[in-house]
Design a protein that fits this description.
With 439 residues, this protein is mainly α. It is built from 15 helices and no strands. The two termini are 38 Å apart.
C-alpha cells in the first residue's frame, strides 16, 4: 500500500508542474471572469437604459439563441482547426466587443437598441469559445491526468462564479461616479480579462498536440454527429434524463437570468452590488456542495435517482421562497442553499452519465446535452420577459417553483428515472450497448 501511494503522488504533482496546464488554467480563469463580469453588467445596463422585464428577456434571448444555433458548428470548427487558435480568436473578439460597449457607455450616448446586436454577437462568439476550450484541455494534458485536470477546471469555474459577480456588482455600484460610470468600468474590466486570457494562451508551449487537430472532412463530421445522435436516442434512460434536465433548465433560466435583477431592484430595492452578492452566494453554496460530496460516502446520499428528483423538488420550494422573501440575508441564504443542492447533484449525476457513455462517444453525447441546455434557455428567457411585462416578478418565481416541483414529482413516478444509479439487472452488461432496446 505505501508503494502504491508513493506511486500516485508524482502523477498528481506532475499536473501542477506542467507549464502547459498552468498557462491554460490561467487563461480559462481570465475568460470566465470576463464572461461573469459581462453577464452581471449587461442586465443592469438594460434596466439602467429604461428597459423592462420584456426588454431584458429579449436581450438575453438575443445572446442565447445564436449560441444554441452555432454551438455544434463551433465544436466542428474546433475539431477541424487548432482549438487554441479558435479559443484565442474568440477571446480577442470578446475583448473588442466589451471594450466598445464600455467606451460607448462612458460617452453617455448608448441606445437600448444597440444592445440587441451586441448580445447576438456575444452569443455567436460564445458558441466557439466553449467547444474550443473543451477540446483544448485533452490536447494539453496527458490522458492519465485528464480527470484531475477537469476537476481543477470545475473548481476554477466555481471560484470565478464566486468572485466575478461580487466584483462586477461592486464596480457598478461604486459611489462617487457619475451615472453609468461603474457600468463602463465593469465592461472595460471584462474586456481586460478576455485580453489577458488571449495573451496567456500565447504562452502555451506547442508541446504534445496543442496545435494539432484531426483531419476530418465536413461530411465525416456530419456522419460522426449523426452516429452520436442515433446512439444517444437509443439509450432510453439517458434520453429521458436529458429531456428532464432540459425541462429543469427551462424552468430555472428565466427566473435567474431575467427575474433576479428585477427582484433585487424592484422587490428588495437594492443595487447591483447586492445582485452580484446573490449570485456569489449561489457559487459559494455550489463549492460547499462539491466539498460535501467529496467528503461524504456515496451511501450516505442514497440512490442517485431519488436524490436528484428530491433535490429538484426542494429547489422548487426554495425558488418560491426566494420570490416571496423581502429580506436580503434570507435571500442570500436561499441562493446559497440552491447552489449547495446543485453542487451535490451535478457532479454525481455527471459522473454517472459519463460512465454510461462509451469513451469514443462522450464528446458527441455531451455536446447534445449542451445543445439542449442552450436551446431551451432563450425560450425560457423570452417567456420570462413576456410574463414580467404583465405580472410581478414574485409571480414568476411562484409559477416556476411550482412547475419545478411538479416536474420532479412526475420524474419520481417514473421507475426508469427513479432507478438511475441502481445496480443493473443484466449481469453487469451495460444496457447502453443496445440501440434497439435502449436500456
Amino acid at each position: 500500500m505505501p508503494n502504491t501511494e508513493s506511486a500516485l503522488r508524482p502523477d498528481r504533482l506532475a499536473l501542477w508542474r506542467d507549464r502547459r496546464f498552468l498557462w491554460l488554467s490561467a487563461a480559462w480563469f481570465c475568460s470566465i471572469l470576463g464572461q461573469q463580469t459581462a453577464l452581471i453588467a449587461l442586465p443592469w445596463l438594460v434596466l439602467g437604459l429604461g428597459g423592462d422585464g420584456l426588454a431584458l428577456g429579449l436581450v438575453v434571448t438575443a445572446m442565447e439563441l445564436p449560441r444554441a444555433v452555432f454551438i455544434i458548428v463551433g465544436g466542428a470548427v474546433a475539431d477541424r482547426h487548432s482549438p487554441r487558435r479558435v479559443f484565442q480568436c474568440s477571446l480577442l473578439c470578446c475583448t473588442a466587443l466589451l471594450a466598445a460597449l464600455g467606451l460607448a457607455q462612458l460617452g453617455g450616448g448608448l441606445p437600448l437598441a444597440l444592445l440587441y446586436p451586441f448580445a447576438a454577437a456575444m452569443g455567436v462568439i460564445a458558441a466557439f469559445t466553449g467547444p474550443s476550450a473543451a477540446a483544448l484541455l485533452p490536447n494539453t494534458v496527458p490522458e492519465a491526468q485528464l480527470q484531475q485536470a477537469n476537476s481543477c477546471f470545475m473548481a476554477v469555474n466555481q471560484l470565478t462564479l464566486l468572485a466575478g459577480p461580487a466584483l462586477a456588482g461592486a464596480l457598478i455600484a461604486l459611489p462617487g461616479l457619475r451615472a453609468g460610470g461603474g457600468l463602463s468600468l465593469a465592461f472595460l474590466l471584462g474586456a481586460a480579462c478576455f485580453l489577458a486570457g488571449s495573451l496567456l494562451l500565447t504562452r502555451l508551449p506547442a508541446g504534445r498536440t496543442v496545435d494539432a487537430a484531426p483531419r476530418q472532412s465536413a461530411a465525416g463530421i456530419l456522419r460522426s454527429i449523426g452516429r452520436g445522435a442515433v446512439w444517444t436516442w437509443g439509450d432510453a434512460t439517458l434520453r429521458a434524463l436529458f429531456f428532464y434536465w432540459a425541462a429543469i433548465a427551462f424552468l430555472t433560466a428565466g427566473p435567474i437570468q431575467i427575474g433576479l435583477p428585477l427582484l433585487v431592484r424592484d422587490a428588495l430595492r437594492l443595487d447591483a452590488a447586492y445582485f452580484g452578492t446573490l449570485l456569489s452566494s449561489q457559487a459559494a453554496g455550489s463549492l460547499l456542495g462539491m466539498a460535501l460530496l467529496a467528503a461524504l460516502p456515496a451511501r450516505a446520499l442514497g440512490r442517485l435517482g431519488l436524490m436528484v428528483f428530491c433535490v429538484d423538488g426542494l429547489m422548487g420550494a426554495l425558488i418560491i421562497g426566494l420570490g416571496l422573501s423581502g429580506d436580503f440575508v434570507a435571500s442570500s441564504a436561499m441562493m446559497c442553499l440552491i447552489g449547495l443542492l446543485g453542487g451535490l447533484v451535478q457532479v454525481r449525476l455527471m459522473a454517472w452519465i459519463q460512465s454510461r457513455i462509451p469513451p469514443d462517444m462522450r464528446g458527441r453525447v455531451m455536446s447534445f446535452l449542451m445543445f439542449m441546455m442552450a436551446a431551451v434557455t432563450p425560450l425560457s428567457t423570452t417567456l420570462a420577459g413576456l410574463i414580467l411585462a404583465s405580472s410581478p416578478v414574485r409571480g414568476l418565481y411562484a409559477g416556476a417553483g411550482l412547475a419545478l416541483m411538479a416536474v420532479a414529482v412526475l420524474a419520481l413516478s417514473s421507475a426508469r428515472l427513479r432507478g438511475i444509479g441502481a445496480p443493473e439487472k443484466t449481469g453487469g452488461d451495460r444496457p447502453v450497448h443496445s440501440l434497439q432496446t435502449g436500456d
